[in-house]
Fold this protein.
Amino acid sequence: MENKTIYITGEARTTLDNAITKIYGSFYLAFVIDSETGEILKADCNTTLELTREFLKELFIGKIIDKDEEAIIEEISSRYFASSSRAIVVAYRDALQRFKKR
């Protein structure tokens, strides 16, 4: 990775009966972002299924973290139908706030 990248995380709580909560306590999203353009170059999260991680990576990678906020949230709402969907949006917004404060 080049020096123009930054690493940012976002955190959120999931429901008490969610496997993520039972295993990890909280849901985390992590991003490697081009600090000049805001493009999300890499993404990862702490889910219980690899398929979920891969799906979420597909939703985030290539998007501009601060300019594509509405599109990212719409894509989560229209494509991700699992109990952790709200936590994903909250964790993304948490990461977005960290990006804006840097």
Remarks:
- Helices lie at 19-24, 50-60, 69-79, 85-101.
